[in-house]
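Minutes, project check-in
Item: structure for the 154-residue chain
Input as provided by the requester:
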Amino acid sequence: MNTLIPLVATFVLPNCQPPYVSNKPVKMITDFDAGMVCYVGGMVGLTMWEYKVVPQLKRKGIIPDVPLIEGDITEAQKDLKWMTPLTCDNQLPLPTFDDLKNKGAYRIGSTNGIHQIITLTPSQAYPLDKVAIRSPEWSLHYNTTVYIHKERIK
């Protein structure tokens, strides 16, 4: 049986060459191409690590919860609950709609080194995420769209 296969291949396929024999030039991956693939893949991996894994490690206390940028908010401070008209600092009187409209921003309370501030317009400095949101409670209180953001006490 083993001698039959080469015999059949010789008579049936006389002009076939093995797949590794070719007259065409083979395109090789250059060092630059390999370097770019490694660089881009590494940067994507590190970015995903920084945005997905590191915050979870900080919340669990495995790595210290220190902000990367001076004056930035830590993960624990980002996780603080948002203040509502019922849970805000009662020592500070709530602004009227006209006061909020004229002043632009109003501090409603402070906890754990963070001020929480309400505004009528979203701030460009605070993207809508864990640091700034559109507040349904404050919007209901003032009957208009109100935004709330967290700011580190200086």
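Outcome recorded: The beta strands are 105-111, 114-119, 132-134, 147-152.
No further action items on this chain.
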